Amino acid sequence: MKNESSNRLVMFQTSLGVRQSDERKPVWFQQDPKVFTTKAANTASAVGDYGRTHNPPPAPPAPATPPGGE
User: Do 28 and 37 contact (CB within 8 A), yes or no?
Assistant: First the structure.
């Protein structure tokens, strides 16, 4: 089933992961303007909070009823 909101969130999380990669982080981390470093950290935190709120982990499966059981 197509879930556009979830797909967009995963895409954005992937782009944050690329930005945080060891290969790319030195390009922007603690470089001028330093406000970018702060905003990047705030963005990652906000996206993580949004993902936990709007895409909670699935509930565990219900226990199986034994054959001929209750």
Answer: yes
Q: How many domains is the chain partitioned into structurally? A: 1
Average pLDDT, the chain: 74
Burial of 57 (0-12, 13-18, 19+ CB in 10 A): exposed
Cβ atoms of 48 and 10 closer than 8 Å: no
Specify whether the CB–CB gap between 49 and 42 falls below 8 A. no
pLDDT band at 8 (very low <50, low <70, confident <90, very high): confident
* Structural domain span for residue 41: 26-54
Q: Taking the complete model, does pTM exceed 0.70, yes or no?
A: no
Is residue 21 domain-resident? no
